Amino acid sequence: MSVMTYNGAAIIAMAGKDCVGIAADRRLGVQLTTIATDFPKIFQMQPKLFVGLAGLGTDVQTLKNLLEFRMNLYKLKEEREMSPKVLSHMLGKILYSKRFGPYFVEPIVAGLDENNKPFLSTMDLIGATSEEKDFVVSGTCTGNMFGMCESLYKPDMEAEELFETLAQALLSSVDRDAVSGWGGIVHIITKEGVLTKELKGRQD
Asked: Across-strand partners of 97?
């Protein structure tokens, strides 16, 4: 079993009409043994900016703390908030700088830019970044999530429809993956604010 699948994870981010959503499962396991069912994998970095970290649980926590430190430094120096695109570039640089002893994490950046337009990007564990217009996935059941997102995604969804689509895609995907699941959490980011809902899934 790969170290990337050791703890299990499933994260999806999807763009809508002037809104963006990000969803993740809640399970932390050691291979097939469930350790916790409330492990956070999505972190709010700014009011309209979230980062999802799938991979090794210890590296998820380390990288989250490092990102918060770097973003606070940026705010002190630049006297402005970091945009999603800048955060994505910075995260890619952090991962690439550790390429010979990498963080075992595959991040997703999701948020609204200064014009309230959706921004989505994902990267591998050494920082090779891909920006997308529709959806991005990360974790142990990416094949399932790609299939569900390709089936359910429609352009320019409103916030409520985006939530329903993300919830259905996530729950259907983790049902077929042994190392992720135990419910989920969905954040919908709009220009008015963030709507967060928890999902109850199969617990077996």
From this structure: none
pTM to 2 decimal places: 0.88
Is residue 204, in this structure, part of any structural domain at all? no
Instruction: Write down the number of H helices and E strands in the chain.
Output: 4, 12
Helix (H, G, I), strand (E, B) or coil at 191: coil
Beta-carbon contacts of residue 202 (< 8 Å; ≥ 6 apart): 175, 181
116: domain range? 3-199
Residues 6+ apart with CB under 8 A from 89: 129
What CATH code is carried by the domain that includes residue 55?
3.60.20.10
For 152-183, the pLDDT digits (tens) are 888 888 989 999 999 999 998 888 878 888 88
Short-list 118, 102, 90, 93, CA closest to 18 = 118
